[in-house]
Amino acid sequence: MEEKNYNNTAKSHKVLLVNRGNGAFSGVVDVLSFDVVEILLETELGMLLIKGQDLHVNRLSLEKGEVDIEGRIDSLTYSDVKTAGKQAESLLGRLFR
After folding, report:
1. Residue 96 burial (CB < 10 Å; 0-12/13-18/19+)?
2. pLDDT at 92
3. Residue 11: what pLDDT?
4. Selection from 22, 20, 67 nearest residue 43 by Cα
5. Beta strands in 1-97 (DSSP E)
6. How confident is the prediction for the chain on average, in pLDDT?
7. Could you say which DSSP state residue 3 is in?
8. Nearest alpha carbon to residue 41 among 66, 7, 73
9. Long-range pairs for 79-88 at CB < 8 Å and ≥24 separation?
10. What mean pLDDT comes out for the span 24-51?
């Protein structure tokens, strides 16, 4: 089994989650999509899918790479950047059904 080193000093990504209601994320490259149940972020270390209810982006600073969200956060799911295209396509496919 291949082991990956995620402690690369050139890239930085932090998540601060408070009571599943407020989240502060750094190392964000782009916000690919968002609505009240899903937010898809591209981070320095891969794609991050945030699922929940009544999700809102309170603050977005792509220059600093920071995003603050609030709402009920049910899950945080990471995937590699290589699979992001497939994930974004499936998200778009669901939107246009």
Report:
1. exposed
2. 56
3. 78
4. 67
5. 14-18, 22-26, 28-34, 38-43, 46-61, 66-79
6. 83
7. -
8. 66
9. 79/46, 79/47, 79/49, 80/46, 80/47, 81/42, 81/46, 81/47, 83/47, 84/32, 84/42, 84/46, 84/47, 87/40, 87/47, 87/49, 88/32, 88/33, 88/40
10. 94
